From TrEMBL:
<dbReference type="Pfam" id="PF01706">
    <property type="entry name" value="FliG_C"/>
</dbReference>
<feature type="domain" description="Flagellar motor switch protein FliG middle">
    <location>
        <begin position="123"/>
        <end position="193"/>
    </location>
</feature>
<comment type="similarity">
    <text>Belongs to the FliG family.</text>
</comment>
<dbReference type="GO" id="GO:0005886">
    <property type="term" value="C:plasma membrane"/>
</dbReference>
<dbReference type="Pfam" id="PF14841">
    <property type="entry name" value="FliG_M"/>
</dbReference>
<dbReference type="InterPro" id="IPR000090">
    <property type="entry name" value="Flg_Motor_Flig"/>
</dbReference>
<dbReference type="InterPro" id="IPR023087">
    <property type="entry name" value="Flg_Motor_Flig_C"/>
</dbReference>
<dbReference type="GO" id="GO:0071973">
    <property type="term" value="P:bacterial-type flagellum-dependent cell motility"/>
</dbReference>
<keyword id="KW-1003">Cell membrane</keyword>
<keyword id="KW-0145">Chemotaxis</keyword>
<dbReference type="GO" id="GO:0006935">
    <property type="term" value="P:chemotaxis"/>
</dbReference>
<dbReference type="InterPro" id="IPR028263">
    <property type="entry name" value="FliG_N"/>
</dbReference>
<dbReference type="InterPro" id="IPR011002">
    <property type="entry name" value="FliG_a-hlx"/>
</dbReference>
<dbReference type="GO" id="GO:0003774">
    <property type="term" value="F:cytoskeletal motor activity"/>
</dbReference>
<keyword id="KW-0966">Cell projection</keyword>
<keyword id="KW-0975">Bacterial flagellum</keyword>
<keyword id="KW-0282">Flagellum</keyword>
Amino acid sequence: MNQFSPLRKPSRLSGPEKSAILFLCLGEERGGQLMQRLDVGEIRKITRAISAMGEVQAEVVEEVMREFGEKMSSYGGITGSVEAARGLLKGFLPEERVAEILGEIEGGSSGDLWGDLSDLDDKVLAEVLRKEHNQTVAVILSRIRADAAAKVLPLLGQERAADLVERMVAMEELPDAALRSIEESLRHEVRGKAGRNAGADTEKQLVKVFNKLDAKVFEGLSRELEKKIPERFRSLKQKMFVFGDLIELKPAPLAKVMREVTGKSLPMALRGADKDLREHFLASLPARSRDMLEDEMRGMGPVRSRDVKQAQVELVEAALRLASDGEIELPSSDEEEMID
């Protein structure tokens, strides 16, 4: 007896569920051939849908396959199950990969190892990292989200943090076998939070991490890195764009940046800004908008420093996003040689 309720409402089906119905209708051989053309993320989503959907009524199949109505109506009802998913996957994946994918699904994994690690509580993540060799930790920090890396790095101690950054700077492309070994080890450590994701460029990742670090933490870390890897660290600092750099923007692009954030982010960010930077922001606004912003700042009362930092990060990220889209041009921090 099937343990799932029959699937009856085609209007509520997700994309992966509709795709799962298609693959079940195609059968193992043809479905397996088609699935080979998909990436791993798409395979996981469809496999999860097949494993969970249970019985699908014929009228639902016909609705999903309406453009193939005559061909699909001959199939009648179909049934999705773990075994059905296993049969499709075995057509083009090794047995161990099939077992791994289905094991993750049955165990509740999201299929995104680095995303799952990034979502861990920072103290829990720090405990996981403390058990690992520094080179392994450097690999992990280069692949998890920058905000997660910025939270956990100070918890590992200033001396170890400096060593980790030094290793990240010197890191070369990791062989696939070594990366798979790290991933497998982490899957056992955080079972149910496993998967795979492409790594970010190390320098870009470090710049994002530095931008999100608390100012005092970054100052202490900077002192250590300036001793250990002065040239590479200066190069990294030149690539950074921080909240204070917004003072270099002209009124028009700065106004665009301000329009990118919503709610209390702008007044919150300016509450923690120094006087010159705050005045630069206000001077970039029309008189009416400036007065409203000043009133909002005065009415906020005491604010937490971490809320101010987060609001300032939102503005920096908005500026970087606009620059990436070609909407504004950011000031260059590179020191250019002057020619007489």
